[in-house]
Amino acid sequence: MMIRRIQSRWNAFFFAEEVPYGMALVRITLPLVLLIDVLPRWWFARELFSIDGAPAPLWVNYGNAPLIPELSGATAVALYTLLIACLLTACVGWMTRTSLAVACVLYAGFGLLDAVGTLTKYTVIASHVLFLLAFSQCGAIWSVDAWLRRQNNNPRVGTSSAPKSPVWPTRLLQLLIGLIYLGAAFTKMHTPAYFSGDQLAFWMLADMNFHNRVGQYLSMYPPFLTVTAYLTIVWEVLFVYLIWSPLWRLPALALGVVFHIMTYFTLGLTIFPLVYLAAYLAFLQPAEVERLLVWGKRLLAQFGLYGGLVRSGATVVPFATMRQRPAYAAAVWGMVMAAVAVIGVEVEHHRDVYGRRTAVGPLPLKPLDPELAAQMLGPSRKLRPQDLYYAFDIGTTTLAGLLSDRRDSFRYGEQAIVQCTLQPPHPDMWVELNVLDRENHVLRRIGQVVPRENLRTEFYFSFDESLEPGTYDFALRYDGVELTRRRVTLAGPAATLTAAR
Asked: Do 459 and 327 fall within a single domain?
């Protein structure tokens, strides 16, 4: 009985038939997102992906044999033009499955040919999404294929049918997103700098992607980053479980939408969050999409922009009962793709990026500046001690490894926590804390070893009766160089502590 129950739930989860609204929305939006990055690279396809330029294949870094053949210049341009055309035809749903399959192979292949600039996390995720879309019936609705099929089966105007299909491609896409989050959480669990907020702070301060003012502002609030880091990892671990709960599904998805939008404002990411937001459309249930369609039609009808019949849903028919599109459709699509590839090669040929057909012949290579060449080929410059220091703060209480009460005034009997944060990467370091009086005399010297895997170290100093009221300096030193110092005030006479005892 239990085995039958498990089998029934398994079949209901993977093989129940639904109208593929979510996958159709992913099919429409994801190619448009990828084109934001793909289109500008067309101008440099010969340089990036062919032996006529300077490709950086992934397998070279590992000393392996080529995974795919190296391309000539014209072949790279033709295939890259074909990639753009397939993304467009997949978006509009013309020869949908074939377009998605070709786009998946080409998109992943060009990423492998340029591991330095093209291959990224979002290209890997997008390749998997394209692969799953190619196995779905995402072209059965809202597509040129559906329109042609409808005309072939029932040419009467106003007739609408939404075919059902097995839901397993949608489930695999949903599980893919949830398992990616789970894997990211496991990676963060082995990164102490993530929980302290240091990793997020350094990411936000760097303009590695694009300028992000919000991230630079939030980096000044380490406690906020620590709380955000813990909330993020809890959400990533629970996401794959919460999305199947009727109660927690929408909050988990809403938090994911907010998370990916904030990566744009705090980290400067653009394509990565858009890829995820497009993939999130697969989580929409058919009933939700139909309610949105009814609401949208009613809204358009109020402004006189829609005069059709407003219904709660389309007429659902089994996908297998629909007649296939004419056989010549594949031939037409193939001829169009071939023509587009030839046009792309011809346009790029007339651009003559290397000047091969000019009167003076190919463009000469520009000699590299001798000083720059010596700098690139010479030994690495030694970092200054100041380059390794990031922050130096004083307080009395820590929360999740961070000072929660930065202060510069203390009383007798209090213990100061002096916290030093270093820039990654740094070597194994011996860091000193010197306590100096107003005459710059060293009263105490405290030293600690900071291993290369740690970004933060702490010193503890007690204000006892041996100190007079007044101002003191805490100086941070490394390798015989003073990096920075902070001045604090010891308030109240020493007799106050004695009387209290």
From this structure: no
pLDDT tens string 219-249? 878 788 888 889 999 999 999 999 998 899 9
Tens digits of per-residue pLDDT, 166-215?
999 999 999 999 999 999 999 988 887 788 787 888 888 877 777 777 88
- Domain assignment present for residue 372? The answer is no
My answer on whether 278 and 391 are in the same domain is: no
| Rounded CA separation 231/252 (Å) | 12
CATH number of the structural domain spanning residue 463: 2.60.40.1930
- Alpha-carbon dihedral angle through residues 447, 449, 452, 455, given to the nearest 10 degrees: -50
Boundary (domain end) residue, out of 316, 339, 362 = 339
Q: Are 415 and 389 in contact (CB under 8 A)?
A: no
The set of residues, in sequence order, having a beta carbon less than 8 Å from that of 134 and lying 6+ positions away, is 97, 100, 101, 104
| pLDDT of 491 above 70 | yes
Query: Does the predicted model carry a pTM greater than 0.90?
Result: no
The Cα–Cα gap between 266 and 357 comes to 47
Task: Specify whether the CB–CB gap between 39 and 80 falls below 8 A.
Answer: no
Number of domains forming the structure of the chain: 2
Instruction: Find the domain containing 464 and state its range.
Output: 385-500
For 278, the token pair is 């497009």
